[in-house]
Amino acid sequence: CPECGQSFPPGSEPEKHCCPHPGTWPFICGDCGKIFTVSSILIQHNLIHTGEKPFTCHDCRKSYWQSANLNKHHHIHSSENPYSCADYYGQDFSEGNHLNIHHRIHTGEKPFTCPDYVKSFSESTSLSSHHYIHSGETTYSCAACGQRFRDRNHLIRHHCTLTGEKPFTCLDCGKSFSQIATLRNHRRIHTGEKLFPCAECGKNFTTSSAFIRHQLTHSGEKPYRCADCGERFSRSYSLNQHYLIHTGEKPFTCPECGKNFRQSNYLTQHRLIHNGERPFTCLDCGKSFCQIATLRIHRRIHTGEKLFPCAECGKSFTTSSSLIRHQLIHSSEKPYSCADCGKSFSRKYNLTQHRRTHAVKQTTLH
Q1: What is the pLDDT of residues 115-150, one digit of tens each?
Q2: How far is residue 13 from each of residues 3, 7, 8, 16, 36, measured CA to CA in Å?
Q3: DSSP 112-156
Q4: What is the pTM of this model?
Q5: What is the architecture, at CATH level 2, of domain 40-78?
Q6: What gap in Å lies between CA 254 and CA 264, rounded to an integer?
Q7: Which of 149, 202, 313, 316 is most buried, judging by how many CB atoms fall within 10 Å of its CB?
Q8: 8 A C-beta contact, residue 82 and residue 92
Q9: Which fold has domain 85-219?
Q10: Nearest-CA neighbor of 53 among 77, 28, 79, 73?
């Protein structure tokens, strides 16, 4: 180098050495005025202004403006994860910065703070997305339907819902996903990882969203209120499902019998009745069930667990429905009436039994 005398081996490029000298910054960006010591870096920088992304992934067609970013992205498809977490079962990551961000789960560090809301985040991207809440700005627009989004990742997710594209595949079971984050969460089913422990009860969760929902059970907070009846919920999803009770809408129809359901998971469980599938088996007695919720309730027979105590008499029950039926004894409420004689009952089962007496009488008369 004529400026500092540093020597370089044959075939190297001395102008790229990391020793910028005064007066040797001849490469200026015409758009923003930024100065560079190397022409190749200026050329790369210009791509920011043009929006050009010449480096494309052959697996999912995602594009980047730097080859280095494309090389990092390739780890997603190859499942190569060279960066390991020493704190939790050696969890691996494809990029070093992902490992650094992951470490903040263990340390609780949130270095990025919003000055408007005094809210902190563990990632700069989360803070950037949060800023749009204050500005109301929607920068990213869907070319297909015109819907606008505050965050680029939200636009990408939306695009996948329109195209049905699921480029991220689990190597263990072959299931595909539209988002890499969903694949990472799914992988914990196979690894048994539960990264989010509850400080109150010690229960562990595989995702932060499940952990946050669980915390509301301890705090009792229910921030979502139904405008029709005033009932409150801890999750917005639960409120949206509750609204269907008022509208009477049941958008999910069984193709086998035509029965309608308010929720897609109810339909999924119902369809197991038609195909006879019972995938959930009790390890204690071998009995099988078509719904995991039914298996959980059944397991209480073996454990003796009774989670639902009566506030009036202290008697406990294994299911909430059993407690509700029992509470009618204390209230003297009898909501089930016989259409033939007007007699009322506290339980639907008792009404059904009673109706048979009318059926027997009619048979005797004939």
Answers
A1: 765 677 777 767 766 665 555 555 677 777 777 776
A2: 15, 11, 8, 6, 16
A3: EE-TTT--EESSHHHHHHHHHHHH----EE-TTT--EESSHHHHH
A4: 0.31
A5: 2-Layer Sandwich (3.30)
A6: 10
A7: 149
A8: yes
A9: Double Stranded RNA Binding Domain (3.30.160)
A10: 73
